[in-house]
Design a protein that fits this description.
144 residues; alpha+beta; three-stranded antiparallel sheet; two-stranded antiparallel sheet; 4 helices; 29% helix; 21% strand
Length: 144
């Protein structure tokens, strides 16, 4: 393991690691035994998103910062939970950079299109916000 907890130490520009990370809880992976400890908090760094995209550009940077701002608004006093977040990007996936932005949001939040994994529970909306041309919602379990 390299600097900053990555295996690609020295590959990216140092300022990539100066961007505050997005912290997320991942209860499904915990339930499936992926973690050593209970209630871990995962950190998604800008460099992680660059790895997912294969490059850094204004779209990837904007997606990361938009995601960060939306999650801070939806979870002002708590760590966001992957799988409890819905994101709608308005416009067609192949229009402009919508598909790239959607992939970035999905990578960090676990939100997915209808073809994605639905999770283990049913949810209802408990809060929402708009961020440019995107609609974000926090979902809470209905216990089902």
């Amino acid at each position: 393991m390299g600097e900053n907890g990555t295996t690609t130490s020295g590959v990216f520009q140092e300022f990539f690691y100066q961007v505050p990370p997005i912290r997320m809880r991942e209860p499904l992976a915990e339930a499936l035994g992926a973690f050593k400890n209970r209630n871990p908090v995962l950190e998604y760094r800008f460099a992680d998103l660059v790895k997912m995209a294969g490059h850094a550009c204004p779209t990837i940077a904007g997606a990361f910062l938009s995601c960060q701002a939306a999650l801070e608004a939806l979870y002002p006093d708590a760590v966001p939970v992957r799988g409890e977040i819905g994101v709608t990007v308005f416009g067609a996936m192949d229009e402009g950079v919508n598909g790239v932005i959607g992939q970035a949001f999905s990578f960090i939040t676990g939100a997915a299109p209808t073809s994605g994994f639905r999770g283990l529970r049913s949810f209802r909306s408990s809060g929402w916000g708009e961020c440019g041309t995107c609609y974000w919602e926090k979902k809470i379990s209905t216990g089902g």
